[in-house]
Fold:
Amino acid sequence: MITIDFNRLNIKPGDKILDIGCGPGRHTCAAYRFPKVVAIGADLGFDDLLEAHKRLRLHDELNDHGGGVWGTSVADITSLPFKTNYFDHVICSEVMEHIPNDKTAMKEIIRVLKLGKNLAVSVPSFFPERICWALSDEYFNANQGHVRIYKKFDLIKKLEKQGVKNWALHYAHSIHSPYWWLKCFVGPTRNDSMAVNLYHRFLTWDIMKKPWITRALDKLLNPVLGKSLVLYFTKTKN
Structure:
């Protein structure tokens, strides 16, 4: 499931792209499709990096890429092993809500970004996330733990204090919100709920087929029910 809108980033041949907290590599693989880029997926979880590695190798085998190069790295977002002002784009999707020391993480992802270049950050949006927390005491401990719920303008302000300027935002994945509410209602770690499993099958079908009717519905409902808040910034100072 791709959350970041890559079309907004103005990616050029030769650009270096970091997907920090890449998980199984969905955004890293999407970045690798752009012409002649360097796509780096980094995560603290070794098992997730192995999955990302497998996906990227599959893209190579299928020749489903832009002719650039890719790499993976074990990395802690609060202490990144990359040079200052190194990347042309940094993607941080659904990560910050897991990080206790988010201020240090923000400093790090901005430190490794070149001046004048793009940062894309997504987090669970406030309203759908608040419902999840209200429905289940387990939810914020599942999926590696959610330690906070961000409000839009608070998050923008925190990031801008570290040297970036927000220039765009949108919401994404509204039709995914009811799925998470169902999971929270029955128990977020259960896998034997018929309703949850049927909804998951529907979402998988939607991701694979991309029918126009669900695309239109998702776009219509995103401003209110979008599961993710997606923010775009430019680095303005070191």
In short: The chain has a mean pLDDT of 95. The helical segments are 26-32, 46-61, 102-111, 126-135, 152-160, 177-186, 194-209, 212-225. The domain at 6-125+141-173+227-235 is CATH 3.40.50.150 (Rossmann fold). The first strand starts at residue 16 and ends at 20.
